[in-house]
Amino acid sequence: MKTREYSVKNLHCSGCSAVIQSMILKLPGMAGVNIDIYEEKIILEYEDDIEDISLLKTINEIGNKIEPGTLFYEKKETKKEEESKAEYYFKSISFIGMFVFFITSFLINSSDFQFLFYLLAYLFISGDILWKAVRNIGKGKFLDENFLMSIASLGAMYLGEYHEAIGVMFFYKIGEILEEKAVLKSKKSISSLLELRPETAFQKQSNGSFQEVPTASLHIGDIIQVKEGERIPIDAEIMRGESYLDISALTGESLPVDVKAGDTVLSGSINGDRILELKVLRKFSDSTISKIIDMVEHANAKKSKAEKFMSKFAKYYTPIVVGFAVLVGFIFPLFLGNFLLWFERAILFLVISCPCALVISIPLTFFHSIGKASKHGILIKGANYLEALSNIKNIVFDKTGTLTKAKFQIEKIVGNDIKLVKELAKAGEFYSKHPIGIAIYENISFPIEEKDIKNYRNITGYGVSLEYKGKNIFLGKETYLMEQKIAHPEVKEKGSVIFITQEQEYQGYIVVQDQIKKEAPETISQLQTLGFSPYILTGDGKEIAEAVGQSLGIAPKHIFSNLLPEQKVESLQKIQQSGKTLYIGDGINDAPVLALSDIGISMGSMGSDVAIEASDIVFMDDHIEKLLFLFQLAKEIKDLMDLYLLCTGSQNISHDFRSIRNCEYVVRYLCRCGSYSSLHSVFRIFFSSILKIRLTFLPKKFIISINKTVQIQIVNEREPHCFSVRFFHIGGLP
What we know:
Layout: E1 2-9, H1 14-25, E2 30-36, E3 41-46, H2 52-66, E4 71-74, H3 80-104, H4 111-138, H5 145-158, H6 162-191, E5 200-204, E6 210-214, E7 223-226, E8 236-240, E9 243-246, H7 248-251, E10 257-259, E11 264-265, E12 270-271, E13 276-280, H8 288-299, H9 305-336, H10 339-352, H11 356-375, E14 378-380, H12 383-388, E15 394-398, H13 399-403, E16 409-415, H14 418-428, H15 435-443, E17 453-459, E18 463-468, E19 471-476, H16 478-483, E20 496-502, E21 505-513, H17 520-529, E22 533-537, H18 542-552, E23 559-560, H19 565-576, E24 581-585, H20 591-596, E25 599-603, H21 609-614, E26 617-619, H22 626-649, E27 652-655, H23 658-671, H24 676-695, E28 700-706, E29 710-716, E30 722-728
Parallel strand pairs: 15-22, 15-24, 22-23, 24-25, 25-26
Antiparallel strand pairs: 1-3, 1-4, 2-3, 5-6, 5-7, 7-13, 8-11, 8-13, 9-10, 9-12, 14-26, 16-21, 17-18, 18-19, 19-20, 20-21, 27-30, 28-29, 29-30
Helix pairs in contact: 1-2, 3-4, 3-6, 4-5, 4-6, 5-6, 5-10, 6-11, 6-24, 9-10, 9-11, 11-22, 11-24, 14-15, 22-24
Transmembrane segments: 88-109, 115-134, 316-340, 346-367
Main location: membrane
Membrane topology: Multi-pass membrane protein
């Protein structure tokens, strides 16, 4: 099985993309298809014996059959965004001209000439929609938005309601322009990430000079130079120089970080005021910024339940709408009379029922939110995970590195021979990557030669064993000594206790102390206020775990201590019985629980690669207060989903912006219409669609009250004004 990704051009209709995706999936040997019209790409998963060129030709034939002009091609650098922007401005100018042309028609008094101008204005504005509708009917695909708009506007022309026919198409095309602008804006939030990844780097040559080369050509161990103000192109270790880094693009952290020789620096960071020489640690494709871009670009492939629902909804919705319109326009008059009245109502129903804004606004909201989160140093691997956050009840924390700083200090060294305890501890933590082991190794001064260490082995959940100078050594938890029946004193210390044995005999212990993160108490308190239940799972002793829990306000019954990795899994399963559970951790031993939890979050800056791979969401730093931002983002999305459905289900919408009211009066005057209600309804639907697209990009808070009238107050935090939207006679509400 292999996976390929191709670029997509000239495919903007979500309904068409769903049909194309369905048809491609039916091809022999296809295992998976995902078309993303917002990022303009298609991801195919198929059997190895299928030829790439042949498959590409086939999917292009399918695409052109459903939506002529659609092109699938090998991914490469293009200027699609500039073309899309140019097309947008061209459309804008064209429709402004058509609107002026439409206004000019009112200056002609002759009814014959007026009809001619109306007809020309109608054809100029709606010609492409009419053509698409006719073309799709010829292909047997007639139940789409083009058909709805065409039949509704042509019916209005037949009834002599020329203003309504032209107004329907005019507002519909304006809505299309705004949707295109919204999609383009959302694409920018993602494409801006690409600017964080330099395409070239200065590689050190054999003669000592530095030559500019493609970053992708660098190998592990190569030496590169990064000058002042330049972006670090690849993950590396500083070999020479010291400076400060701006890592705000990766983590959202505004304060600069000081770095020196021996420190690891991440790609995407901006170098400060000194030249640095770096040794490459990872391949270009495995570097931090490349992984970020890959995660964000592929996040939209994992669709939320709301997006999947809308895809199915659009498939069955249009036939139902058309069927009901036929019932209203042709069956009702047989029993109730007044054919023209019922026919006009059927046409108006077709206009009102067009679901375009809803179909595009839901996936667009998730797409935009994932890009927004990435700018705050949060990587969300799929829209389904973002949606699932709104159902979380329990939040389970790993202790070390998550609630605490994981920067340990040695508090006490105890033993009959302190010098021997220090030597054995230094040797035992020689290869350690654990924060406790690193702290012990760095804070004990004792010369150790690597050749004296053999058979080094990590004992999961207990500690490490090794052979040092021909003797068996163990460093780790008291649990191991008890299981091995090694005599040792009872120790009650506030901190993590590391026992040391030599040849199965107790030699002493070291007490190390960690510090609680300063933002942890406030974060836990706010999460509890929001209704979440916090838990702690840790391998540390009961005294340490409960002391941390007490300082954070976590109930003792929610603290699970002395856990081995497999026991963490069992404890998480018990917690999950009371509701959907989120787990947040950073270590290798967290990988199983991260994978098992409903939502798994790893702390990226300190987290292991295994933990990051197993998680659904990645924090690029160790600031747990980002949980609050994440849940706020999830809540905003849920509120937006409810608001979109209310907008679509409403029969009447009024807007408190004075300018919009004035526009209504202008339209009323220009139309000089006795049947003002039809265009007035079109006008309301138009602004309902604009509202849904506009709300996607505003930081907002919702105040929703539902009774006989549904009132939503949207408070925009970025723009000081606020406005209210009221919906009346909403189906299904009392």
